[in-house]
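Student: Send me a single protein entry containing the residue sequence and its fold in token form, directly below this note:

Tutor:
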Amino acid sequence: MTAHIQGKSRWLALIILCLGDLMIVLDSTVVNVALPSIRTDLGFLETTLVWVVNAYLLTYGGFLLLGGRLGDLYGHRKLFLIGIVFFTLASLACGLANSQGLLIAARAIQGLGGAIVSAVALSLIMIIFTEAEERAKAMGVFGFVIAGGGSVGVLLGGLLTDLLNWHWVFLVNIPLGAIVYALTLALVPDDHAGEKNERLDFGGAITVTLSLLLAVYAIVDGNEAGWGSLQTIGLLALAAILMAAFLVIELKVSAPLMPLGLFRLRNLSVANVASVLWAAAMFAWFFLSALYMQIVLGYSPMEVGLAFLPGNLIMGAFSLGLSAKLVNRFGIRAPLAVGLLLAAAGLALFARAPVDGTFWIDVMPGMTLLGLGAGIAFNPILLAAMNDVGPHESGLASGIVNTSFMMGGALGLAILASLAAARTANLTALGASMPVALNAGYQIAFLVGAVCAAIAGALALLLRPARPQPEAAGAPAPAEAE
């Protein structure tokens, strides 16, 4: 493939691939700022609003590995284009949605398209840039764009929601998707498919996705249906059965979606557990802090976007190179532990934020610590997962960690949002005002999130020490399956 793309053309192709993945990153942050407006307009409850996020996260995480395998078999550029089409059309449906059901369904399709795009974009970069030095530069650009997308997303979400309405946080993807599709056809050369005779693990993808969907639904609806109700217990039992079926399938199929033998590797297993806990804390922070600032403190969507900016800028700066320098100096264990513990401290500060909080005292310190912690931990979590695997398994190992992160975020957000709603309902029943009750609910969720991040930081100390890997340390973000 590299014979057909040389010089500046490769860097133009990189820009297009970065722009495509930037759409996906933007969508995961831009929506958070618009959540209160979506809640008011479409009549979501506190517990059901998380489905606007979870519907996307579950299909995204559930199809990351499968998307990468499809790219290997049928061509990465072809799958990249298909993913862009899915994502763009689903964005149009989200922007035109006038009901909860339509919005949630469209978000699920968005997640599917996003998973395909993310899974094959990095593979295309690895194919286009074969020399180690140029590949490292390309990965640095890719990682900076993706990390910076968080800052752009919160600002763009606030701007569009304030000046227009929440529908435009989705409709803005339409022209972007069209541009990316056209430029991909023009600038990114087609690649040859891999081994087409290899069977795909559709059974594994279906069972694990359905299992997580049912589990999250049971948790989200637990407050309404009752935690001891037949519905909740039945759904959780069915989710467990489907998860068991997934494990059986993975043990028997010749080309499993997630080879279970990899989890015998200590660093990979520790990194995955830490990723689940960290993601639960981080997704709850994004979701609940946006609600806290808008509903309790009365911030406008634009003000919420600006409030997130310091943390996201710090994350972007560390992802561009500072985190890699720390890894080169201290290895992976210490930076990962420190980063996760700093994030836990940031969440603990949010757990004490009062009803009449101010930005500089009650928001900015927590945002700064969370941005610093996440920025430091970004690279080490990937390197920890890849330390014990060979080069031919590095893409799969990083894809598994990315999937664990997305699934942990979805389940963690569902659990913590339900805890917050239960606390709010209890205090409201006792006569507390709505702002006081909501704030108390957010506080308990932030506290549990802080505990999750602290446990993840402690687990990082169990990692086997490894020599710093300068080239790998420059990899800025979890790579999806190739």
Observations:
- Residues 1-198 form a domain with the Growth Hormone; Chain: A; fold (CATH 1.20.1250.20).
